[in-house]
Design a protein that fits this description.
Elements: E1 6-10, H1 14-25, E2 29-34, H2 40-49, E3 52-55, H3 60-63, E4 68-71, H4 80-88, E5 91-93, H5 95-100, E6 106-111, H6 116-129, E7 134-138, H7 144-148, E8 155-159, H8 162-166, E9 175-178, H9 193-201, E10 212-216, H10 220-228, E11 234-239, E12 247-251, E13 254-259, E14 264-269, H11 278-293, H12 298-307, E15 316-321, E16 324-328, H13 335-344, E17 349-353, H14 363-372, E18 373-379, H15 384-390, E19 396-400, H16 403-413, E20 419-422, H17 435-453, E21 456-458
Parallel strand pairs: 1-2, 1-4, 2-3, 4-5, 6-8, 6-9, 7-8, 9-10, 10-11, 11-12, 16-20, 17-18, 17-20, 18-19
Antiparallel strand pairs: 12-13, 13-14, 15-16, 15-21
Helix pairs in contact: 1-2, 6-11, 6-12, 13-14, 16-17
């Protein structure tokens, strides 16, 4: 790094601005280039630091004078300016890679197609409640680079996407967690699932036996890829169906943890976990295993499991009205996420789904829907694909473009003990700004309904 003088940051979001501030702090000449319009808070950050930047364009000549480029994960390798920099031989890395070069803190990197945010937040919560000096970064909270400027933490818990992993050359976490790999973002990988798998596995390529790799063993692509690789990291498996000698597994109503090297075994009753669903048992086992590798006291971990509250819009309990539980799972924008939601709920379900279809294949959830869903409420402008597929498979199907109607119909179609579940399987942009807006409007509608009925209970 000593030879690097000029650093160019491509993209001025949270990761880009954080990287720019860290680079300036370390004495580099910094230039920030963003092809779009900067958010005001980031413009203020750069102006306050006296960092040169441009927006709405990329000045090729100035960018190609860089000794090192730190690229936003949102910018694809196919973008013209990125291709030109690579042709010139300029090293291009991610903000996580850059920040890791300036901290001696331990790092926990969590990736997977689904479940990253929940597992990251839970791991952070468990460690913090256990008394560790821990920071939260990556795709949640402030950027890793911004936090490394002061570098006040002993451990950083990082949520990392495949796009970020693609920009890592030397980074090796102390603990890497791989939750699952299912087809997603394939447009960034030449529509090759294997290339996407390869991207995820880059997270462990630099790891040695001193570091820990935790993975979900029930997902075929991970097991298949592991069989083809010589992994040097210490491996811990997680399973919902098999007993695991080194790792964790679900044993009826307990989570069981075995650490072979320490000859230790622990059991946690499932009812001590605040999260819903089998997929969240995987997330919980991954988080707890991580704390155990950090020597966290088990009694503090169990206590913290009870108090954890997930990020909004992820199987979020909203309210109970006349003994019917309303759940907001607006973040479930694909069929795989809906599968986990349906699988994890034991009660009969009134399912609210719909929005912009992303090429969904509903075969994966057909059996679960037939078994558990008593009514389907389609919330979207065009519900044709949903209604065509589930007609004859669900007793009652209704359509609306009103979230208030959806909540009210959920109450009308349910009975005491049922669950009304918003888990759309689709993008939100036909009726809402984003999935957060959809979830917030649903929660507001449920609260209004609760206040009108007068017999509700907040969760």
């Amino acid at each position: 790094m000593e030879a690097v003088k000029n650093i160019v940051i491509l993209g001025a979001g949270e990761s880009g601005v954080g990287a720019a501030l860290l680079a300036q702090h370390k004495g580099f000449n910094v230039f920030v280039s963003d092809g779009g319009v900067l958010k005001e808070r980031y413009r203020k950050d750069l102006n306050a630091a006296g960092i040169e930047f441009e927006e709405g364009k990329h000045t090729v000549k100035q960018i190609l004078e860089a000794d090192l480029i730190i690229k936003s994960p949102g910018i694809a390798d196919k973008v013209d300016i990125v291709k030109k920099a690579r042709e010139k031989g300029v090293e291009i890395i991610d903000e996580i890679e850059f920040a890791s070069r300036y901290t001696k803190a331990k790092t926990i990197a969590i990736t997977g197609t689904n479940g990253k945010t929940t597992t990251t937040l839970l791991t952070y919560h468990l460690l913090k409640e256990a008394g560790y000096n821990v920071g939260l970064a990556g795709n949640v909270g402030h950027s890793f680079a911004r936090q490394v400027i002061k570098d006040n933490f002993d451990i950083y818990v990082l949520e990392v996407s495949s796009f970020q992993i693609d920009g890592m050359n030397t980074f090796k976490p102390d603990v890497a967690i791989l939750l699952n790999i299912t087809p997603d973002h394939l447009d960034r990988y030449d529509y090759s699932f294997q290339k996407y798998v390869n991207s995820k596995f880059r997270i462990i390529e630099k790891m040695t036996h001193e570091e820990c790799f935790i993975y979900f063993a029930d997902k075929g692509p991970i097991e298949e890829e592991l069989a083809r690789r010589n992994v040097e990291a210490s491996i811990f498996a997680i399973s919902l169906v098999e007993n695991v000698k080194n790792g964790a597994f679900l044993d009826e109503d307990h989570l069981v943890f075995n650490i072979e090297s320490k000859k230790k075994s622990h059991k946690i009753p499932v009812n001590q976990v605040s999260l819903i669903g089998k997929h969240n048992m995987v997330n919980s086992m991954a988080a707890v295993l991580t704390t155990l590798t950090m020597e966290a006291p088990m009694e503090k971990v169990v206590k913290a499991l009870k108090t954890f509250k997930n990020a909004p819009h992820r199987l979020e309990k909203v309210a109970t009205i006349d003994d019917v539980l309303f759940i907001n799972d607006s973040k479930a924008t694909n069929v795989d996420s809906v599968y986990y939601a349906l699988e994890g709920i034991e009660a009969p379900i009134v399912w609210i789904a719909g929005g912009l279809d992303k090429g969904n294949d509903y075969d994966r959830i057909e059996a679960l829907v037939k078994d558990k869903v008593k009514a389907l409420i389609c919330l979207g402008k065009d519900n044709t694909k949903l209604t065509d597929y589930f007609t004859g498979k669900v007793a009652s199907i209704r359509q609306t473009q009103s979230v208030n109607d959806a909540a009210r119909w959920g109450a009308d179609l349910s009975a005491p003990g049922d669950v009304v579940l918003l888990s759309p399987a689709c993008a939100s942009f036909d009726l809402f700004r984003n999935y957060e807006d959809r979830g917030e409007q649903f929660k507001d509608a449920v609260v209004q309904l609760k206040n009108h009925v007068g017999r509700g209970q907040s969760v």
